[in-house]
């Protein structure tokens, strides 16, 4: 209801129309809250001042009118929310300030969600992998070795061309290293020779304990101490379950969940047994560093010079540059690794 403005006096600086209630009366009267030369006041339809000064309380009923209390005497309500804001300025109760009140809580909720996402992103896969490892039957891991070796033989590797005496030399070292290496978690450590030009001088371990040595490694590094160091390092990847962890990490989360649910279907077996991912697996820096530490202890215990592993990496750096050949591109930087190996070897 809009009241004729002349009922309220002149020189309005702003006004809102509504209804006033006297504290002691149950009836309401049409009224106007206005600001003029006399200041802010509530007037009735006749222009009589009901009370003066700013409201002592003001609240907005969500989607409804704005209620104002003037001391103990009068209440005033109006639907003209915008008019009230123009007249009195933004309220403490309006959405702007309520957002300020809610902000810390909203912020906490958003921060909580982000932390949750971060945890899942950073450790979710590790947690899944740990679960999958715990649920993996020991016997199954040796079939992973067999399957992967067969897959590699189809696509990546060829029968060894090493001489019998070279093979025997490596076998003797392997036997000595095996005797001093930590316990193999999934059956025994076994040695395989393969010619694999694409991966150059290399040795790698399959999760069940199969260690593959390439012809190029024996040809380029025909030094028992170096070979002992490398074998010690590879066996450490097995005993620490790095190989199985890396294999599982390379699988999709879907497959890991299926595995934990006990649903080891044919698709999963294909992935695990036929996957050629193993040959290109990259261990984390932590895994490499811990395999270096254990490998050095093992080769020293077996009677070899553990510092030889540093020579291997020095030679690799010379041949392939600081980052090494492609297969070890995610390994720790060679310079850093060589320093650590020398230090560890000196401590033996
Ligand atoms: Zn390694």
Automatic annotation (TrEMBL):
GO terms for molecular function: metal ion binding; metalloendopeptidase activity. It comes from the Bacteria. Its cofactor is Zn(2+). Keywords: Hydrolase, Metal-binding, Metalloprotease, Protease, Zinc. Binds 1 zinc ion per subunit. Gene3D superfamilies: Metalloproteases ('zincins'), catalytic domain. Residues 201-344 form the Peptidase M48 domain. One of its GO terms (biological process) is proteolysis involved in protein catabolic process. One of its GO terms (cellular component) is membrane. Belongs to the peptidase M48 family. This is TPR repeat-containing protein YfgC. It comes from Pacificibacter marinus.
């Amino acid at each position: 209801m809009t009241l004729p403005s002349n009922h309220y006096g002149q020189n309005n600086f702003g006004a809102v129309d509504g209804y006033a209630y006297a504290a002691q009366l149950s009836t309401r009267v049409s009224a106007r809250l206005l600001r003029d030369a006399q200041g802010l006041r509530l007037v009735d339809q006749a222009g009589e001042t009901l009370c003066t000064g700013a409201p002592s309380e003001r609240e907005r009923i969500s989607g409804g009118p704005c209620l104002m209390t003037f001391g103990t005497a009068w209440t005033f309500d109006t639907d003209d929310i915008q008019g009230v804001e123009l007249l009195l300025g933004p309220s403490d109760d309006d959405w702007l300030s309520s957002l300020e009140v809610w902000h810390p809580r909203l912020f906490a909720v958003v921060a909580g969600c982000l932390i949750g996402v971060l945890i899942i992103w950073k450790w979710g896969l590790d947690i899944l992998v740990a679960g999958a490892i715990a649920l993996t039957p020991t016997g199954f891991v040796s079939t992973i070795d067999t399957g992967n070796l067969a897959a590699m033989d189809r696509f990546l590797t060829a029968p060894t061309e090493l001489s019998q005496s070279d093979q025997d030399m490596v076998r003797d070292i392997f036997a000595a290293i095996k005797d001093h290496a930590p316990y193999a978690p999934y059956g025994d450590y076994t040695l395989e020779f393969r010619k694999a030009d694409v991966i150059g001088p290399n040795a790698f371990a399959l999760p069940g304990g199969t260690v593959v040595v390439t012809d190029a490694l024996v040809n380029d590094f025909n030094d028992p101490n170096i070979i002992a160091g490398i074998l010690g390092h590879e066996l450490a990847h097995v005993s620490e379950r790095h190989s199985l962890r890396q294999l599982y990490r390379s699988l999709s989360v879907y497959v890991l969940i299926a595995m934990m649910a006990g649903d080891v279907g044919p698709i999963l077996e294909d992935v695990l047994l036929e996957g050629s991912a193993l040959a290109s697996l990259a261990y984390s820096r932590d895994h490499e560093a811990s395999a270096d530490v254990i490998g050095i202890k093992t080769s020293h215990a077996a009677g070899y010079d553990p510092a030889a592993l540093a020579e291997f990496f020095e030679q690799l750096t010379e041949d392939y540059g600081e980052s090494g050949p492609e297969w070890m591109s995610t390994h720790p930087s060679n310079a850093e690794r060589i320093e650590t190996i020398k230090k560890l070897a000196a401590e033996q």
